[in-house]
Amino acid sequence: MPEPRHPNLPRSTLLTVLTLAALLETVWTIYVGWKLPRHYVANHWDLAWVGLDVAQVLMLLGAAWAAWRRRAILILFAASAGTLLVLDAWFDVTTARRGDVFKSLLMALILEIPSALVLFWIAWRTIGLLTREAFANVRIWRITLPPRSRAPSPDP
Fold first, then answer.
1. CA atoms within 13 Å, Cβ hemisphere of 66
2. Where are the domains of the chain?
3. How confident is the model at residue 133, as a pLDDT?
4. For residue 1, what pLDDT is reported?
5. Which residues fall within 8 angstroms of residue 67, CB to CB, at 6 or more apart?
6. Handedness of CA 52, 56, 62, 66 (dihedral sign)
7. What number of CA atoms fall less than 13 Å from residue 31's CA on the CB side?
């Protein structure tokens, strides 16, 4: 069986790009928080909410299909569906009118957040099952990457 291929992206480059992206996103978030108006009338509000719900349905169907077919992509579908449910709960609560806040909060606490937690657990459990199969008794959080091979230094 051939060795699995690994991406040829140096770890330092990846860390630099991810850290820079986080810093830029932080600056952008501060700017947006400072500049956005407190009240804003949005066009296509219904399309935005229906689109979010359609994405949730597609991820849940993908998770169901992957579980039925015993595919590892279940991890991606379950994690994505859980993330979308948390996002839905956040926007439901933060955009609710005064009279609807309690209902939105109740929906988030009773349905959306617990469902998201179950989906995250499914993704985590699937990762655990795959790593147990692939690495026998090695746990995923104890796996260490081998050091990068360095070219031998010329002896003087």
1. 20
2. 46-138
3. 74
4. 57
5. 74, 122
6. positive
7. 6
| Segments of the chain with pLDDT less than 50 | none
| CA 100 from centroid of its chain's CA atoms | 28
pLDDT tens-digit profile of 23-47? 999 999 999 999 988 888 889 988 9
For residue 152, the Cα-to-chain-centroid distance in whole angstroms is 40
Burial class of residue 142 in the structure, from the number of CB atoms within 10 Å of its CB (0-12 exposed, 13-18 middle, 19+ buried): exposed
Cα separation, 86 vs 73, in Å, equals: 20
DSSP states of 23-63: HHHHHHHHHHHHHS-S--PPTTHHHHHHHHHHHHHHHHHHH
How many CA atoms, within 13 angstroms, populate the side-chain half-sphere of residue 67?
13
